[in-house]
Amino acid sequence: MLVSNLEFLPGRKVVRHLGLVQGSSVRSKHVGRDIAASFKNFFGGELRGYTELLSDSREEATSRMLEQATSLGANAVLNVRYSTSSIAAGAAEIFVYGTAVELAEDVVTDV
Amino acid sequence: MQYENRLPEEGINVTRVHPLKQFLLLVIGALVLVVSLVVVLQVSGGWLAKRVPFDFELKVIEELDIEFGHNKQHPQMVTYLNELAQRVAIHMSVPDDMRFQVHYNEDDVFNAFATIGGNLMFYKGLLEDMPDENALAMVMAHEIAHVLHRDPVGALGGGVASTLALLALTGGAGSSMAGSMLSAGSVTSIQFTRGMEEAADEEALAALNALYGHLNGTSALFEMFSDARGPSRRSEQVLERFLSTHPRDQDRVSAVAQRAQAEGWSVEGALTPLPEGFKDWL
Amino acid sequence: MFSLVIQAGIVVSLLVLGYLFGSFAERRHYKKIREREAKGTGLPVIASRYPPQDQRYHQHLVTGSTVVASDYFKNFLAGLVNIFGGRVTPFESLLDRARREAVLRMKDRARELGAAYVFNIKFDTTRIATGRLAAMEVLAYGTAMVPMDKALGLRSALSDDDVLQPGPVHAV
């Protein structure tokens, strides 16, 4: 599956558009992480735990979007966008969406 | 097409200001803002509160349902104090709707105070040291004068106004403070300004002169206050002069003499003794 | 009165600690960022939707993200600024650092794939709310353009499953 946030792929032809696909994931860290983070908040710096949490969460959301795309019979998702919102204390929703398309199999148009 | 990433100049998206310098300026600014806000609201809130009808004060005190002192255990003392209040009040210009209620508290505190709703509180610690009725009447007249000047409701109103404003400014951080402003504790611990105290003294002296025909006993009262506080060092005296809400005891003594001279009142005269059995009522 | 003094003491010591640790960390972070940015000029990041058509590229979504927390001093200073309004300077540098860090991480990922450019870069900034904690996540993402000759050599790295591994996490 090819994933891109461009709207077209130079050299590849989109055969048909298969519609919007989306993936989302809401996660939170366990309380221990929150407490550790609140201590870190006194001195500043990166909250490593949260960076990892959101990265994992983003991966999950993306793989869900790809699952949707696969079920539509697509072989690429174009114009992908991420959106993040904090839902409640310590919980964030990651949302990812894009257009599922079917690309012609490696047809090289002139470049 | 040529693509390249040049590095833009550093620090365009951040303001170049030393954080400590900014911090200091902002702290000073915030302090000035808060202090001036409190002063303005204290004054204007007090001014507005004094325009609230006395009836409303009575309703508030009723609503708060405060148990003043230990009146039930000392009926004779309460009766005597209230009777004295009546006698003193006759010589003061009391509005028709204003009433006084004197309470007795058996705590060993050398104090008396006035609060909203015309409630006056006398402590055992003060009463047991009273040498004669003149001194007691002076204290009574002083506290009644506070009520006449609407000082308790003014101070409380100013406090409530400034607290509410700080509450709005800090976004709820002081909510417990605002809650306590209208509680029993605040009603019985109102602080007056020195100006209020001096005005109350003046009014009280006039009433005392009208009641007894002389001011004998009042200077003795202030000297008693001085003794009760104990000797203070010179540095403390200077500090006291600035910080204390009440005028200095010596100043009050000399104010009595000056006033007497100016008005042609006598500072000599027969002292009225306290009623028989006064000590037993304590 | 005594408890008030204790409280004030705690606040002051947190302010001092926050300032010392925070400003030290900020200086060190900026130094690292400048070094890495200087090294990374060979891989242009372009905010354009139209990729070059000079040759065939394999395309790849790449991401880089970081969650940054403000220190106690910055928070306090920002609270004071709030009273008077104006530039919230303590957070300007915080967000500036976070954005540049996210871009650098995204570029690290693109470099691993042998990309020549990253196109159509987008940012996503979110407040992470955990009680009284003030923290922001900055995500940078874009399409890495990997020249086809390099892409063929890295076939395994470009397998379908691997498409969206986030960038590696670096210490700030």
Give your account of this protein's structure.
- The complex is a heterotrimer of chains A (111), B (282) and C (172).
- Chain A has 111 residues and is an alpha+beta fold.
- Chain A has two helices and five strands, in the order E-E-H-E-H-E-E.
- Chain A has a four-stranded mixed β-sheet.
- In chain B, helix 5 packs across helix 9 (194-212), helix 6 packs antiparallel against helix 7 (175-181) and helix 10 (218-229) runs antiparallel to helix 12.
- The longest helix of chain B has 31 residues, at 19-49.
- Chain B is mainly alpha-helical.
- Chain B has one domain (34-281).
- Chain C has one domain (2-162): Hypothetical protein apc22750. Chain B (Translation Initiation Factor IF3).
- In chain C, 47% of the residues lie in helices and 27% in strands.
- Chain C has four helices and four strands, in the order H-E-E-H-H-E-E-H.
- In chain C, strand 3 and strand 4 form a beta hairpin.
- The longest helix of chain C has 38 residues, at 2-39.
- The radius of gyration of chain C is 20 Å and the shape is elongated.
- Chains A and C meet through strand 1, helix 1, strand 3, helix 2 and strand 4 of A and helix 1, strand 2, helix 2, strand 3 and strand 4 of C.
- Strand 3 of chain A pairs antiparallel with strand 2 (57-71) of chain C.
Features:
heterotrimer, B: 282 residues, mainly alpha, three-stranded mixed sheet, 13 helices, 3 strands, 5% strand, elongated, C: 172 residues, alpha+beta, Translation Initiation Factor IF3, four-stranded mixed sheet, 4 helices, disordered C terminus
